[in-house]
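Final report, closing paragraph on structural work. Over the funding period we assembled a curated collection of sequence-structure pairs, and we close with a single example.
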Amino acid sequence: MARHRRALLGLLFGAVAVGFVYYVVPRIAGLGPTLRLLRGGNLWWLGLGVSLEALSIAGYIWLFRGVFSSTDGRIGWRVSYQITLAGGVASKLLAAAGAGGVALTVWALRASGLDGATVARRLVAFEILNYAVYMAALAIGGFGLRLGVFAGPAPLGLTLVPALFGTAVIAVVVSMLWIATPVEDHLLRLSKRSKGRAARFWKKAAAYPKAVESGLRGAIELVRSGDRSWLGAIAAWGFDIATLWASFRAFGHAPPVATLVMGYYVGTLANALPLPGGIGGVEGGMIGAFVGFGVNASLAVLAVLAYRTISYWLPVLPGTVAYFRLRHTVGNWREHAPSQPASVSTRRAA
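Its predicted structure, as stored:
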């Protein structure tokens, strides 16, 4: 019965994915007209963009394997590939900054045998390593443009403000190495003084400082261990930006490097918006950012739409296949899971 239910859910997931791409996307994102406009781009540059995006995904898989690899070898290259691509599809079907992908990742990691505490700690470490690159780029690129270190226009709202935001996030996360315990104690005191929803809110918030500290220590430990998989974060972001650069070149000239990087990261902040499947937020954010930097509006629209077609839509099919392969992998894990001794089962029943 359980096996049939899993198969049914898998078929339902696939049907939703195909139906979403075929029926909903063209209505929301205007994918049909977009693809017709993109036909005027240089195919060699667009083909290079596809290759660069594949390298970006490979970098993400490298980072994932480095953080979550287990002693029993279950989380190897193949499973890391499956979880990464399947998680990408799940993130497209559910909004709110990739909540679907996180849920699928947790499900797969728990099925692999990792306990909940380990999964939570490593997920935080993974996100810290991944977004450390993001925040550092905002700070370096924003301050660099504003101070004239890098060539390119430097509007206040697109340089200094993001740079201050990135710096503040880095400072808050790093500070948890020293202030996690006092902050946790303070929030717990607030929860005891409060009632109802307020008490539950402060109690829930009290868990975050220690979680960030634990994840940060795990990330630092990975970097210090000599394992170079943390470089996968740089590769993932770097090759993704290179895909955007190739998309600009397919329709004209790319903006200066610092402008390209800042336009990319400022626009990507819109991914946090709870839009259907995340559609429209990043596109609008990036186009607006590049126009704010003085890039020709028509060029920005074509380049960003080409980039999003490559980075967002092309991985849907392999991601759907990876999802079904992941379900098969998880099924094998559960089928071959060691059974508990009779005495343990008896004690629990008692």
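Residues 12-31, 340-350 have pLDDT under 50 and may be disordered. The longest helix spans residues 156-193. We thank the funder for supporting this effort.
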